[in-house]
Here is the input.
Amino acid sequence: MISMNNVSKWYGSFQVLTDCSTEVAKGEVVVVCGPSGSGKSTLIKCVNALEPFQKGSITVEGISVGDPKTNLPKLRSRIGMVFQNFELFPHMTVTENLTLGQVKVLGRSIGEATEKGLKLLERVGLLAHKDKYPGQLSGGQQQRVAIARALSMDPIAMLFDEPTSALDPEMINEVLDVMVELAKEGMTMMVVTHEMGFARKVAHRVIFMDAGRIVEDAKKEEFFGTPRSERAQQFLSKILHH
Amino acid sequence: MSGFDFDVIERSLPYLFREGMTFTLTLTALAMTGGIVFGTLLAMMRLAAFKPLSMLAGAYVNLMRSIPLVLVIFWFFFLVPYIGAWVLREPNPIKVGTFWSALITFTMFEAAYYCEIMRAGIQSIARGQVWSGYALGLNYWQTMGKIVLPQAFRNMLPVLLTQTIILFQDTSLVYVISATDFLGAASKIANRDYRLVEMYSFVAIVYFVMSYGLSTLVRRLQQRIAIIR
Here is the structure.
């Protein structure tokens, strides 16, 4: 469904991504991990063209992301994205956050969009907060609303950019639980995270990045059993035994 | 001060406010509205990735901010009739009138200042908010209109209003093109009745009371916004 071919990206003369290639099949959950600054967030943002790239190609269901003729808003509306800092719209209520994209992009009526939004809000356990502003919610609650907002667009795939990194430890699980459930329903997911427990539980594949390169791209069992690269071994021992 | 004539002030109050202050407030309100709209567009241009666009807006802003306002008022007052004639292909300079001439001038001039305020406001919105809008499939105009500008505007409201108080005071400069604004009206009576001290003192007090009152309101608003955030 998502296919990357030799993607390279530079910030000025500094190369942040080097020849990254991978595939994400329909229904597959792929976890992207690696030390900070390794380019994993940048890579995932290339998938819906929030970050432009200079070389290589990315296609989503056959549509080329880098092609200037591609209707980017339309493409992006089909890919849900969840950010590290939630990025709910602080000047809108939770319900307005959930309906904005549906009404403006998908052309749904307010009634239809609200119904859909509230159903998803109930699913993430936050229906009681529908009229609040994001600032009145905890981080974990905001992130669950953000997931519901992304789902309200009926995406064909979901991208998660370190969804639990900005959360207090006691709130991490409430967000991960929603993600696990989503994975079990067969949602195609690409998840940048350090949560190896999540990876063990639901990932099909793990991609390990270092210094802008995909160093390892393996089935979950292989990755956790016998990572081939020394860099991944070091990273795993650090992250699993801290 | 024995010769201070309060009567002349009282006698001229209807004229001063009905003619003069109405002109001043109308000009302020319309130039503020136009200036903020045009200034916001300029700010978006300045922040555009397309270089010629941002350079054009930058040049405009720097030009306006480098010329004294009085000069711009004169310049527009004498030039706009010719530009109008050229645009409408009329043989003679068109009649614009002092109000319209002043309105165009102040809108164009203040836009440069409102632009810088809105630019700072837009830049104060985290990159992630824009990403978040784009990720939902919103286009540039929708992201700006629904997400970035409402937040930028709210954050910058106190500064925009402070700039408007300056605009309110600056509109008194239209007196150089003989417009009957509040100062212009007072000046006419002052010269007619030879009561310059009385009239100019009164005008100063009125400007002070209104400007000070408004800036007190702005300060309160600023505190409220700080609490919300």
In short: Chain B has eight helices and no strands. Chain B has a mean pLDDT of 91.
